[in-house]
Structures are given as C-alpha cells and as structure tokens.
Amino acid sequence: MKKTITVFAALAVCATAATAQDLPQPVKARQGQFNILALNLGVLGGMAKGAVPYDAEAAQAAADNIVAITSLNQAAMWPEGTDSMSIDGTRAQPVIWEKMDDFHSKWEDLGAAATEMASAAGTGQQALGPMLGKVGGACKACHDTYRAPE
C-alpha cells in the first residue's frame, strides 16, 4: 500500500508539472505540495467515510506524508510577484504578501493539526473523522483569506 501511495504522489507532482510548464518554479512547487496534501487527505477521507476499507498502515503513511509536507519551510515557495493578480495559473491572493506572518502562522497551524492526526491515524477508522475535521479547519482558515475562488 505504501508503494501505491508513493506512486500516486509522484503522479500528482508530475501532473502538476506537466500542466503548469509556464509557471515559475516556486508556484509549481507549492502547487505540487498542495496536490500531495489533497491526495493523502483523499486517502484518509475515503477511509473515514467507509468508502475505502480502513488500513492502519496506509492511514498512517498518508498522515505521515501530510506531516512531511506541512514541515516544509514555505519561504522559497512564496516570492513576491507570484500572486493571482500578477500571473495566471495561481489562486494565491495578493494579501498573502501583506500578511506573510499570519500566512506562515496558518501553515504552522496546519502542521500542528497534521501532527495530531498522525498520532491517531493508525489507531482505527473512528479516529480519522475528528482529526480530518481539525486539518480541514486549518485548511479553511487559510483558504478563506488567502486563496481565490475557482
């Protein structure tokens, strides 16, 4: 199962790179990390809903992947001039660069929620829902202010 998750993560990164050839490298990198987050959250969400059989090893691997992504230092991925008003292909609102400390704080909050989820993901399906709620809340807290709608 770990190999399957790794293959899907690699495919997500490749798909992002293939569709975003004209974007600056920092934008490609941050979009890739968000695709990997989405992939792993999907694995956990499927298990939490019962749409996919719970697998403790796969749940733990997905949660650990989320922790790894949220542990990345974000500084190099958010240079000025890579917002949605400056270039096409990103949903990053210009307000990010006006409130960078708050933006980074929200990323740290996501990391804390991910770490908490990782401590419970392998313990059973019943643990996933509440933990995913916390991670989703951390995502929403940032998206509400810093991500443009589709």
UniProtKB/TrEMBL annotation:
One of its GO terms (cellular component) is periplasmic space. Heme c binds at C139, C142, H143. Keywords: Electron transport, Heme, Iron, Metal-binding, Signal, Transport. It comes from the Bacteria. One of its GO terms (biological process) is electron transport chain. Pfam families: Cytochrom_C_2. The keyword Lipid metabolism does not apply. Binds 1 heme group per subunit. GO terms for molecular function: electron transfer activity; heme binding; iron ion binding. Residues 1-20 form the signal peptide. SUPFAM superfamilies: Cytochromes. The keyword NADP does not apply. This is Cytochrome c-554.
